[in-house]
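@channel sequence for tomorrow's demo:
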Amino acid sequence: MTAVSNTERIFSELDRVRVERLAARFPTPDGLAHTVLEGFDEGDFMMPSDIPDDVVTVNSRLRVRDQDGNVREITICYPGEADATKGFLSVLSPVGGQLLGHRAGATVSWADPSGATSSLHIEALLFQPEASGELAL
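structure tokens (generated this afternoon):
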């Protein structure tokens, strides 16, 4: 999956540490870097208490619109909590990893291995742990 979004990304330093550890424990089937790790190379990092309240972090719940106009709610979670049928996308999944660090209002696009392009528009953050004071340290 190749990201084609060029919007600024901001990541929580705590998310970075946890996600890097998880990525080392759960390598991709093809041996390539997880999408989220590629994003870390392009983004800026902040302490969790300094993250703007419109940035997608791990455990954020967001409303997204796909390119066909379908709206749904998803939560970016850790792999053990993932259940795509219930809207829980792992931060290590290609889509979950691509959404992390983007702000509400951003449209995130990517190309899958076949070259087909998909996108999601982040309409709103419905919940962000850092903004609600629910920082699990």
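heads up for whoever presents: The beta strands are 2-3, 10-12, 44-46, 61-66, 71-77, 88-90, 107-111, 117-127.
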